[in-house]
Amino acid sequence: MSLRRPAKIQPQNFEFNSSSLEAANKIVSKYPDGKQQSAVMALLYIAQRQNDNWIPLEAMKYIAKFLKMPYIKVYEVATFYTMYNLSPVGKHFIQVCTTTPCMIRGASKLVEACKEKISKNECELSSDKTCSWMEVECLGACVNAPMMQINDEYYEDLDKEKTLKILDQILEGKTPKPGSYRGRINNEPENNRKTLMDFKNA
Amino acid sequence: MLKLKVNDIDVEVEEGLTVLQACEKAGVEIPRFCYHEKLSIAGNCRMCLVEMEKSPKPIASCAMPAAEGMNIKTNTEFVEKARKGVMEFLLANHPLDCPVCDQGGECDLQDQSMYYGVDKSRFKENKRLVPEKNMGPLIKTQMTRCIHCTRCVRFATEVAGVPELGAIGRGEDMQITTYLEQSMQSELSANVVDLCPVGALTSKPYVFEARPWELKKTETIDVMDAVGSNIRVDTYDWEVKRVLPIINEDINEEWISDKTRYACDGLLHQRLDTPFIKYNKKFEKASWAEVYKIIKSKIENTTKEKICGFVGDLTNMETSYIFKEFFDRTLDLTNYESRSDNRFINISKREDYLFNSSLNGIEESDLIFLIGSNPRYEATILNARIRKSYLNNNTKVYSLNENGDLTYPYESLDGQTQTLKNIFEGMHELSKSILNSKKPMIILGESFLRLNNAEFLYFKIKDFLSKNNKFSDDWNPLNILSCDASSVGNFDLGLINKEKNILNDLKSNKFEIVYLVGQDNIDFNKTDEFVIYQGSHGDKGAEIADIILPGAAYTEQDAHYTNLEGKIQKAYKASYPPGEAKEDWQIINELAEFMNNRKLFNDKEELESSMFNYLNLQKEKQNKEYIKKFSDEFKNEKLTIDIKPYYFSNIIARCSKTMIECNNSKLNLKSTGTEG
After folding, report:
1. How many Å apart are CA B452 and CA B637, to the nearest integer?
2. Do B170 and B117 touch, CB atoms closer than 8 A?
3. Which of B163, B167, B175 sits opposite A70 (nearest CB)?
4. What is the phi/psi pair of residue B207, to 5°?
5. Does residue A134 contact residue A96 with C-beta atoms inside 8 Å?
């Protein structure tokens, strides 16, 4: 991981659309008078959702003015948290978890699949500009490792083949079914195991 | 008071102090990088770790509030080990480039690594490399050296009031930068160079100029504005290499403005180093004897009333005094003046031209009303105090005019003097706020004093305040903000002509001989006047001169200056005048000797003691009330704030290349490559 820089090509202006504005105002109203600046993280996230999963500089300026705080303070926050994307990531943003549990369970195969289907390097837009992928730290679904996140949905219990299938669907514009791809409900134990005592099914 | 033990020494400290401060009170020095007395506490360098009884881990003493019964140890093996560990981490990514680093010799990290550094590094990975940042023409960055103490960020946000610096990224990739690498828009920006404990932010104009141990250090007084900041002038041979602040809690605290710090390269350029005489519109070099001779014959062949003299904005008190003596005793004349504009000044009472509430008083004030003044540019250090007062006490600030960004919020009025009249007749909302405030401050700028109705309004304001009992033994709410270093000193010495308006007479060409001492700000159409210019730099004054007497600049003579509060301070000689130039008092003394074979003073001590006698006499005469009846005529005017361009406000700054660069960077001029 290195310092993330804002994209070279930036949109000229940015403004919240009506639904974002409503969400932003709702969040700002939660904070006591004079502490509105605390809403900066939530507002950055709203801006990111509105703008195809990334935050342009103009959006940071807009938020700084919105919350009456210096530009640099918003910029600091946006560069600090890795889940804010500062350059275009595609409408379908694929995050492959490569932290230890996923790695042990074969996350590198998922990465291979992404490299084949989307782009050679991470954070690079696919040829049709709708997709990009990146390796990320633990997404908290270790029980269903290996897994990846596409926009807001988790795709779990994957292998290379399943990943390729999902990516194909994404590239065709379809929405694949989220969740476990080994037929599990959430993260229930496999083989009908109900308690830790059920050794025979282990 | 809290009682605690530091290394078995009992200390008592006030509540609210930190362990680090308690240790200092016990005489124990704690190493630190991020902690600074004047800034908020960050606690991120971890260098100040100490051992506290009953705590399993060492504590960061700068961030831990002192508490009753604490038992602090700073000299144990445990502490030593902790600090060594911190230092090892700091040095892991710090480059070993001390030999080519400008901070070398005055670097906190260098010094402290002598005590806590380990001679071998266990860090086998590649060192971090951070690209340089653009922070404007004054600050050179070498961010690989940065140890992320965030002193600069806190200074910019808290003291300078320009939140443009920040730390972006995280962990090993954290970088200190300005927003999108724009230059810092502050007149206090270069203080971050002093604050930086390592060589990450160094001075750009001073880059690779000298090593600190090679420089001769002279503690003296600044003359770039009327605040009288205490400075240290570092010289290498004749050249003034740099100017640094020294701490004076009553005046500049620890800061100085960029102009104070960087106008010093103006002392090397366009200097007058030999006497000149103008023949056929061309200057030719001459000897001192020649020029004295010409001046003598000119003065002898002119009617006395046709001679006048002006002193300038940087003239020290000794020079002003001997100039006045020269006119009083040698010429028997009172045609002298120290103002370069027709602003109203009542010198019969000292408090009528001083900043009475004092700089420290700003922090106690609860309401500040700026009239005809933009303190950000006229007195940067004073403005920083107003900001401090705003931050600490939420002081309300009002300004008659819209002043742009003053680094703190203020309410601006319409700029009409009618409004002013209303306020001080009690017919405005602001009148009530002034009446309700305990320690109001009315700050009158020079732009206000230049109004046609200045005298009327001044006494109106004074009347209003005294009727409502705002004057007390420890508080004087009325303040005049002088812009020039010499103003108050000259008023103290009485270099003002009360009977006639010399400036208007000069402009209507009534004089035949004009003697200018460091005065470059007078615009008049020269016809047949014989102009004698005495000063340090070739500027507007020298251009119109017929005879040039090369004088000395403020770093080249021992002399006194009185700051806007009326504090008299001595400036010391750090360098000497170039070439044949002499100290200013000496020139006038020699001229007087040449004219009637008698020196005005035998030596500088005599001049000084005579000057102080004069000042004391004047102080005793102060008690008489101002009786002059002023008319009730009043016409509404628009008050416009007319300030000199900040980076070119005096001759030294005008001759400074750094100041030109600063000015250009504010204008966002693109360099063309042909600047030379």
Report:
1. 8
2. no
3. B163
4. -65, 130
5. yes
**Total length of chain B:** 676
| pLDDT < 70 positions in chain B | 623-632, 668-676
Quick one: angle between helices A71-80 and A40-50, nearest 10?
A: 70
* Rounded (5°) CA angle A102-A105-A106: 90
Surface of B (175-204) touching A: CB under 8 A: 175, 178-180
A73 to chain B, any CB pair closer than 8 A? The answer is yes
β-strands A153-156, B49-52: how paired? unpaired
Q: Pairing relation of β-strands B71-73 and B49-52? A: antiparallel
d(CA B371, CA B241): 38
Between B163, B173, B180, which is nearest A3 by CB?
B173
> Cα separation of A69 and B164, whole Å?
11
Q: Nearest by CB to A75, which of B170, B173, B179?
A: B179
With beta carbons less than 8 A apart as the criterion, state whether A26 and A43 touch.
Answer: no
Whether B179 and A71 lie within 8 Å, measured CB to CB: yes
CA-nearest of B346, B366, B364, B362 to B354 is B346
Rounded to the nearest 10 degrees, the angle between the axes of helix B108-116 and helix B77-92 is 130
Q: How far is CA B603 from CA A195, B322, B328, B590, B606, in A?
A: 103, 12, 19, 11, 5
C-alpha–C-alpha distance, residues B476 and B465, integer Å: 9
The complex's ipTM works out to 0.85
Look at residues B40, B47, B75, B76 and name the one whose alpha carbon lies nearest to residue B61.
B47
Instruction: Report d(CA B397, CA B383) in Å as an integer.
Output: 11
Tokens (6 digits) for A163: 């990943």
Task: Mutate one of B170, B183, B394, B407 to test the A interface: name it (highest A CB count within 10 A).
Answer: B170
Alpha helices in B487-579 (DSSP H): 487-492, 502-507, 540-543
pLDDT of residue A76: 94
| Contact residues, chain A, for B180 at CB < 8 Å | 57, 75
Q: What is the pLDDT of residues B147-188, one digit of tens each?
A: 999 999 999 999 999 999 999 998 888 999 998 888 888 899
CA distances from B152 to B33, B40, B176, B198 (A): 12, 11, 9, 12
Phi first, then psi: give them for residue B380, nearest 5 degrees. -60, -40
B539-595 pLDDT, tens digit per residue, is 888 889 999 999 999 999 999 999 999 999 999 999 999 999 999 999 999 999 998
Considering CB atoms only, which of A70, A71, A80 is closest to B170?
A80
Ordered by where they begin, the domains of chain A are: 2-80 (1.10.10), 92-180 (3.40.30.10)
How close B362 gets to chain A, by Cα (Å)? 25
Residues with Cβ < 8 Å from B556, sequence gap 6 or more?
A: B536, B573, B574, B575, B576, B577, B583
CA A27 to chain centroid, in Å, comes to 21
Alpha-carbon gap: B482 to the closest alpha carbon of chain A (Å): 33
Give the largest Cα separation in chain A, rounded: 63
Rounded to whole angstroms, how far apart are CA atoms B475 and B351?
A: 12
**DSSP code, position B520:** -
- CB atoms A75 and B167 under 8 Å: no
**Which residue in B143, B157, B179 has the most chain A C-beta atoms within 10 A of its own C-beta, making it the best mutation to test that interface?**
B179
pTM for the structure as a whole: 0.91
Query: Amino acid letter at B605?
Result: E
Q: Give, in order, the Cα–Cα distances in Å from B645 to each of B381, B563, B578, B653.
A: 17, 21, 28, 10
Cα nearest neighbour of B167 on chain A: A76
Closest CA to B62 of B85, B34, B29, B25: B34
Residue pair B335/B308 in contact by the 8 Å Cβ criterion: yes
